[in-house]
From TrEMBL:
UniProt keyword terms in alphabetical order: Signal
Name of the protein in its database record: Phosphate ABC transporter substrate-binding protein
Domain of life: Bacteria
Secretion signal span: 1-20
C-alpha cells in the first residue's frame, strides 16, 4: 500500500514536468493585448480579429496549447471542425509543420497569431501570453 501511495505521489509531481511549455505569439504589428478568452475565440471560430495558425496534429505543443486555451482534446477539435466545415460555418486554421515553422509563419503574416515552444521563439514575433 505504501508503494502505491509513493507511485501515485511521484506521478503527481512528474505530470507537470511532462507538459510542454507553450506561449501564444503574434505578428509584431498585430494584436498584442489578447486575453486567453480572445485567443480561445480565434481558435474556435468565434472571432475574426486575427488570423490563427495551427501546428499539425501529433505535436505535444499543440496538445498543451489546446488543453490550456480551448480545453479540448485532439478528437474534440476534429469533431468541432468537422461540424464547422459541414455546416459551412468555417474552416480550421491553416496548419504548419512544427513550432519553429509557426514562428516563421506568424512573423511573415500580418495580423496573425499562433503558439510555440518558447525555445523556438525569437524577436521576429511578440509573445502575448505565457502558460
Amino acid at each position: 500500500m505504501k508503494t502505491l501511495r509513493m507511485i501515485a505521489l511521484a506521478g503527481l509531481f512528474a505530470a507537470p514536468l511532462s507538459m510542454a511549455d507553450v506561449v501564444v505569439i503574434a505578428h509584431p504589428d498585430g494584436p498584442d493585448n489578447l486575453s486567453e478568452s480572445d485567443v480561445r475565440d480565434l481558435y474556435l471560430n468565434r472571432s475574426k480579429a486575427a488570423t490563427p495558425f495551427e501546428i499539425a496534429e501529433g505535436s505535444e505543443v499543440r496538445a498543451e496549447f489546446h488543453e490550456w486555451i480551448t480545453g479540448r482534446s485532439n478528437s474534440q477539435l476534429q469533431s468541432f471542425w468537422a461540424e464547422q466545415t459541414f455546416t459551412g460555418e468555417g474552416q480550421p486554421p491553416a496548419e504548419v509543420s512544427d513550432s519553429a515553422r509557426m514562428v516563421d509563419e506568424v512573423a511573415a503574416t500580418p495580423n496573425s497569431v499562433g503558439y510555440a515552444d518558447p525555445a523556438d521563439v525569437d524577436d521576429s514575433v511578440s509573445v502575448i501570453l505565457k502558460r
